[in-house]
Amino acid sequence: MSGYPDGGYDSPGQLSPQELAAARSAAQLPGVLLLLTGLLSLIGSVWGLIQLPQVPAQMDDAIARIDADPNIPQEQKDGWRNLLTQARDAAAHPAAWVGYALGIGSSLVVLLGGYKLVTLSGRALPIAGSVLAMIPCTVGCCCVLGVPAGFWALVVLSRADVKAAIAAGRALPPADPDAQYLR
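The structure corresponding to this sequence follows.
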């Protein structure tokens, strides 16, 4: 017994087809937005990881161009040199690789959470993906899309009909006996 009153969201088989359709409809758009946030963040993280080895050489080239330009005052040259040197050192540090790897991991959680929300096949991964989508350092600039998508997904996941639809989907026996271990 779960402690919920009879007819609660963990009682499978209590949903009418209309209620199930309403739950699917409510979860569709926030789930797609989470998918989009995760996909864009994943592309950005992979692209950044690919470009990372080239950044120190690019910063050195930029410093050389600034030093060679006679139209830039020495104070500005010093400021730019300092800024570009810091960027070069940050890109060469091993923590940059770890940061991009964590970005890829969080993007995958957001992506899978969006998929699970669209298919109404679980709550834990959509909740984790929604929270990660709302944190700017986990999805980068995609937080502009991730904050509203994550908030909306959390609101949808708290609805009783969505909870019931997820519970009903989990209560169905799998067509393949081994599929229960793949959920």
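The longest helix spans residues 17-51.
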